[in-house]
Amino acid sequence: MPRIKAITTGSTPSFLDVVLNFAETDKSSSLESQDTWLAQLKAKPNGRLVMYGDDTWLKLFPATFARADGTSSFFVSVSGRVDFTEVDFNVTRNVPAALAQTDWNGMVLHYLGLDHIGHKSGPHR
Questions:
Q1: What would you report as the CA-atom Rg of the chain, rounded to the nearest whole angstrom?
Q2: Degrees (nearest 5) of the Cα angle 22, 118, 95?
Q3: Angle formed at CA 40 by CA 114 and CA 51, multiple of 5 degrees
Q4: Do the Cβ atoms of 95 and 109 come closer than 8 Å?
Q5: Which of 29, 94, 105, 122 could form a disulfide with 20, with the two C-beta atoms 3.0–4.6 Å apart?
C-alpha cells in the first residue's frame, strides 16, 4: 500500500500508512479523495479506468474503476507450496478482453509473482 500511494500521489507514505496496510478492514487509508493521476484520468471526458491484479488498488481507490478483478495480495498456499503464479494468471487472463474493448482510457495491471518470490526467497537465493 505505501508504494501504491507513492506512485499515484507523488507523496511519501507515512508510518501510519505502513501500519494500516495490515488492517484489512480499515477504510481510513482510502486515497479516493486525494489528487492522484487516477483521479485526473477519471475526471476527463469519458474517463474510465480498469484494473486487474492486487486488490489493494480496490481498497485504496473504491469506486474508481469501471471494471476490475482484484486478487488477494497475500500468499496462496496450494498443497503446502506457495503459489507465485495464480495472481499473475488472473491479471493476464483479463488482458486480451480488456484490450479488445474501447470503453476505457486507463488500465492498471499489478503483477505480484516476482514480488512474492523476492519476499519468500530473499536477495541471496
A1: 16
A2: 80
A3: 35
A4: yes
A5: 29
Cell of 80: 503446502
Nearest to 69 by CA among 94, 37, 86, 49: 94
Residue tagged 499489478 (cell numbers): 110
CB 81 within 8 A of CB 23: no
Record the pTM. 0.75
Contact 8, 37 (CB under 8 A): yes
Which amino acid is present at 44? Answer: K
